[in-house]
Design brief:
Layout lengths: L2 H15 L3 H4 L5 H16 L5 H24 L6 H10 L2 H17 L1 H8 L12 H30 L1 H17 L11 H10 L1 H13 L3 H11 L9 H11 L3 E2 L2 E3 L2 E3 L3 E2 L9 H28 L1
Antiparallel strand pairs: 1-4, 2-3
Helix pairs in contact: 1-5, 1-14, 3-9, 4-9, 5-9, 6-7, 6-8, 6-14, 7-8, 8-9, 8-11, 8-13, 8-14, 9-10, 11-12, 11-13, 11-14, 12-13
Length: 305
């Protein structure tokens, strides 16, 4: 079975099953295991001198383990079953949509439940967010995580199979845990952050193009091209700016971290700034359209190749 055929099945399995609580309530999710191992490495190696060099060695070793482990699993003569199951576990479109839907439902109960719900998917302070702020945070998270959680894993699975998606997920998890600019991780997490930027470079731009194609293509493309580089991340700005242009809304802007207001630029600054919960549903529809594009491309590829 080719990677194209396996990826098509993975996309469909993920859309149907998502991340069932009955399963992950009984066994540990692979991403959680990765996080624990990365945390152990951080605890044991992130001290003393030469922290940047130690961080390089750690991330290189972890990526090598993921690649070799995935390759060994792929050698098992099971007609690709384990690769498909592994890919379905590590690709996260349905769970992304479910988290966004949870924010909509919470906002229907009031602003306080909405803040609690969105706090599960963003890192900013949410205590002072109004409905527009909660909605904006959910849409930004949806756009960015469509790239990180769907297109990037699919891209690396398509190129390298299970080793590729395992290595990508490990890099992305390491970046989220140690790829920060705080005093403890500035040096040790440098390699993880840079490698994450590298492996997401192509997927982020592909994600942006797909979001543009999901609605108002020319306007979205113009906004993406002009505003993506204003984002603090070299990659997240592409899907977020595309979503801002596609929905004709303003994303980004000032937000608070650890009680300190950070003045970040707006993406599509002339777009509508007063947002409501229904805008999250609009963003979800666009992300489903993008998912459909990927499925259609894989189905076409399975027929052709």
């Amino acid at each position: 079975m080719t990677h194209v055929e396996m990826l098509l099945i993975i996309l469909l399995l993920d859309a149907v099953l998502g991340e069932p609580s009955w399963l992950w309530g009984r066994i540990t999710h692979p991403a959680v295991l990765m996080g624990r191992f990365i945390g152990l490495c951080d605890e044991r190696a992130n001290h003393g001198d030469n922290r940047r060099a130690k961080g390089v060695i750690v991330i290189a070793a972890l990526v090598l383990i993921a690649l070799v482990g995935g390759w060994l699993v792929a050698l098992i003569p099971d007609y690709g079953l384990l690769e498909i199951l592994g890919g379905a576990v590590l690709l996260a479109h349905r769970s992304l949509i479910d988290h966004m839907r949870d924010v909509i439902r919470a906002l229907a109960e009031g602003i306080a439940p909405g803040r609690v719900a969105v706090a599960k998917i963003v890192g900013r302070d949410v205590s002072a967010l109004d409905e527009s702020g909660v909605t904006r945070a959910a849409i930004e998270s949806g756009a960015e995580n469509f790239s990180d959680g769907v297109i990037a894993p699919a891209f690396w699975f398509l190129l390298l199979g299970l080793p590729g998606i395992l290595a990508y997920k490990l890099i992305n998890t390491a970046d989220s845990m140690i790829g920060h600019l705080d005093e403890r991780h500035r040096e040790f997490g440098w390699a993880a952050a840079k490698l994450d930027d590298l492996v997401n470079w192509v997927p982020a731009r592909l994600s942006g193009l797909m979001i543009c194609a999901s609605g108002r293509f020319k306007h979205a493309f113009d906004i993406m091209r002009s505003d993506a580089d204003q984002h603090a991340s070299p990659n997240a700005g592409w899907p977020e700016a595309a979503m801002a242009g596609s929905m004709d809304i303003a994303l980004g802007g000032p937000r608070s971290y650890d009680g300190e207001v950070v003045q970040l630029p707006w993406l599509h600054s002339f777009g509508r700034r007063k947002l409501v919960a229904a805008d999250i549903a609009t963003a979800m529809t666009r992300l489903w359209r993008c998912w459909g594009m990927v499925v259609a491309l894989m189905a076409l590829g399975a027929v052709v190749f």
